[in-house]
Amino acid sequence: MLSEQSINKYQEIYRRQFGVELSREEATEQAMRLLNVARVVFAPMPRAWEDKYKKLLAKNTGQQKLENYQENKNSRT
After folding, report:
1. What would the pLDDT profile of 26-59 be if each residue is shown by its tens digit?
2. What CA–CA distances, in Å, run from 18 to 9, 32, 70, 76?
């Protein structure tokens, strides 16, 4: 559950950004949803996913370097 101070701050920020006053219930619901999204987005990546991402990135980076090299070589001729 969120503290009263957190809910008040969310209401204040929302009002400044959108010009709309939220009820305490609306503010609580929206703030909780925002926190849930943040938890998912900022959660650590599982090690297996990280390893796959690094391999894919290395492969694509190498492929991109090769393509850039070939493009530069072809543009010189």
Report:
1. 999 999 999 999 999 998 878 888 888 888 878 8
2. 14, 18, 50, 54
